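As described in the Methods, two query proteins were run sequentially through the folding procedure within a single session, without resetting any intermediate state between them. The first query and its resulting structure tokens are shown here.
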Amino acid sequence: MVFSSQTFLFVFFPIVLLLYAIAPRRGRNTVLLCASMLFYLWGGGWFIGWLLVSIMGNWIFGHFACKAKSKDQTKRLRHIVGWSVVFNIGILGWFKYANFFVDQINGIASAIDYQGMDWTPIMLPIGISFFTFQANSYVFDIAKGNGKALKNPLDFGLYVSLFPQLIAGPIVRYHQVAAQLVSRTFSLDNVTAGMTRFTLGLCKKVLIADSVSPIANAAFNNSANITTDDAWIGILAYTIQIYFDFSGYSDMAIGLGRIFGFRFPENFKHPYSSASMTEFWRRWHVTLSEWFRDYVYFPLGGSRCSKLLTYRNLIFVFLLTGFWHGANWTFIVWGVFHGFWLIVDRFLDKKERPTGFKLVLNRFIVVFLVMMGWVVFRSESLSDAGDYFYALFGGNTGFFSTALLRFVSIQSLIALAIGSLSFFAPRAWIIGPVIEDSDTKLAGVLRVVLVAIALPLTLMLIINGTFSPFLYFQF
């Protein structure tokens, strides 16, 4: 069940909202917890058992961490945190990376003419990267003194499994919602603002991301045979698709959370307007970047050590960032690619944002580098990425191929044009918070356009069945 499906929009969500509204204040967490478990069970099936294991395990670790913290037992606290990491990474590693490592072992065995391992591939539970990181942040925050352990395991279960952001974030850290888990406001203002933000995300997903996805898929699924023109329109389409798909999901999650009284952190801050790769990562998938910054980069020493060690820390963090996205060499190379350009930013000492022509040039360079990274990220293998780069830079000259042109329509061209505006809009103008809360005339006009024009078009497409799963569900 996805947010842009008829089942969610016309059945699941209205029923949950009604039950939440009529439930007594003390029963609202129970309503949301039951709804969240049903939501995960619908898409994840028996994997819900591992979600429950994660919830119970981290709640116990948090309980012991809180006791050790209150008694100032530093050594014991470190051991508890360490074992919580082993527990969480063990679950994540088994499901997400076991297949990858077995494939590498069998590949080496085949190369030396040795029999490989007999192995039945393991299925990946949906959302495991997100709920694992979110659950582990509970223990980290308690150990750092940024919150007390929740006495009621059901409240903690709600924190980990809350359906608006369970599958693909934002990654909400415990200290950001600790107070809201036990006390929050359910009001008409919150419902109205949340519905507006949800509508924005729904329109971004259906009208833009889903409209350009056939072009991106056609290009990347046939990377060995596409022309240079195919390759460029394909990577443009994917650059727009992944942003509007993922930021659209985040808008929907933030909006749903607001409806139920939660305030989730922003996950995207107009990343394609960045003037450096460092700035890009302060604006793209913000909650993941901050998670790695606070729980990995800073404990390693961050930038408070020598330049060489700072560069090491950056590469290590982005190696992990790439590996977090998936068990494939493409993600690892993508992560190292971004880490390298952050090191270049450090080396060039880019502290002040440029102005004038230099700003325009820097923004162009950042978008170009990000697009080159997306080639690797989207490709099924490094070999496919190589084929795509070959086509991009003139290896397969020629005009658009018939195989790709049949996926180009008026709808997709309009979506490409509107999506491309994200490259040129001012960086300070982040549309989500503006539409959700601003009381300016411009915000009012945007809300009218969103509700009166964009939403009806979106619902027509959904009713016709033309939607696709969110890209980040696979991570």
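Immediately afterward, the second query was submitted; its sequence and tokens are:
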Amino acid sequence: MEFINVNSAIDTRIALIQLNRPNELNALNLQLMSELRDALKELDKDDNVHVIIITGNEKAFAAGADIKQMAGKTTIDMWKMDQFSTWEQIRKTKKPLIAAVSGFALGGGCELAMTCDLVVASETAKFGQPEINIGVMPGAGGTQRLTKAIGKVRAMEMVLTGKFISAQEALDYGLINKVVPVELYLEAAVSLAKKISSMSPIAVQLAKEAVNRSFETHLDQGLILERKNFYLAFASEDQKEGMQAFIEKRKAVFKGK
């Protein structure tokens, strides 16, 4: 892979994917997104991996899409390119995704961070949807996920003016989980991943699906899925172990079965 690095040994049960186009501030070209999709599909099938972290570098998580690949395209060209099918596959990742963000997370970079399930940011992080400045609008979920995360008026201001927000503002708005010093942002993401990876992977994946469904459907439909997944958890050995460990006042040993 040319534009991402995958490290499956960063810690037990945690995989790290690093976007690696530093000279382009990790701009999300078609090849990078395809590599990311393929890596996530493989990691999703790896029983040794429970949590996946996606990061960039200190200067940029990802500073948007690769505009050079789109500038001369027609509507039909863009339709044939079908770039958003790759985003749909990424969205379907079953295992928890944590974005470790430092520097710019703009346009597609902000959308990629929002596609993840949790976001840890350094104090230098900047989030934004500046597509309006080049005569277009967000197309990979920026108008939808941002609005659901921070509310209509704040999302409208960011989308219609191209305004960037700081890591602290993103935290205050409810867009991210925590802000840490720049030298600690990856360490903080790994710490969060360790906590999640210690849980039953079956229960974690069922819970992730249920929480995400609340973003995508009405309450009654979401509750139906939540209850179904709750009952499904009782088919696992992890559920038996977790409850027995609680009764016996000991730490549960989950096996993902």
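The chain has a mean pLDDT of 91. We note this only descriptively and draw no conclusion about the first query from it.
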